[in-house]
Amino acid sequence: MTTINKDMIIADILAVDAELAPVLMASGMHCIGCPASQGETLEEACFVHGLEVEEVLDNLNEYLVQKNA
Prior knowledge:
By secondary structure, the protein is mainly alpha-helical. The chain has one domain (about 10-65): SP0561-like (Orthogonal Bundle). Helices cover about 55% and strands about 0% of the residues. The chain is built from four helices and no strands. The longest helix is centred in the C-terminal third of the chain and has 15 residues, at about 55-65. The protein is globular. The N and C termini lie close together (about 10 Å).
């Protein structure tokens, strides 16, 4: 199982599992289709949106754990 980290590009996170898009959106990141997501890390995107990267990481990785259980 892949673990998401703060240095991953948003597009790469979605390539791991497209179902992570709703998790990102629920966290407050509504620009998943934005061209910036093709080259922006999770940490950079969280900073821009005023989100705590560790909280978003927890949500993403918890989704993957539950899905793969």
